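Put briefly, the fold is written as integer tokens. One such record reads:
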Amino acid sequence: MLDSLGLLTGSPWIYAVVALSVLLDVFLPVLPSGALVITAATAAAAGTTAATATAPAGAAGQVPPQDVPSLLALLLCATTASVLGDLVAYRVAWRGGERLDRAIARSRRLTSAQERLGKALARGGGLLVVIARFAPAGRSVVSLGAGAAHRRVKEFLPWSALAAVAWAGYSVGLGYVGGQWLGATWVGVAVSVLALFAAGSLAAYVMRRPGTTPPATSATPTGTP
């Protein structure tokens, strides 16, 4: 059971913890932000189900007696924090100067990702930003790469927002399904987290495939973020 997280998931502080974790994991990809979102959504789904099952006849739809996170609030919280984190990383990389450029140049992975991202955004093919949101450290590579390459914010931000909605919706949805199916148990959370990791592995595979990013036709001028 999720007893050890009961106080947190039953407190408004869960939203602050989720937001902070999602905001910072663009710089610290080891933070378990996805697992935290899933855990909170699982508790919300299981708590709502339990309250409905124990409510007297005709009482369906009443507010559950126990405190559980709101699924909509979790979705909005995770989405907003994801977009803000992307923008912070983008701005940091934009202003990083020569030191950041040298750091990227020393990493073949970052250099390749930056080049592919530039081509994708130049053609409006920012679907790469959405895919990368699910890949391990993909969000960091894309956000920092967009800033370091001085891509225009109007090219990057809409795709970042779409990626945030997709990732947050998928994570909350996994937690909800797991909570409805298996209840607030570690098994339910583990199954949902494994599904999130599976999506991440698939995203990483797609990003590594040659030809994932279409060739650029013409360079898009850069500007102020």
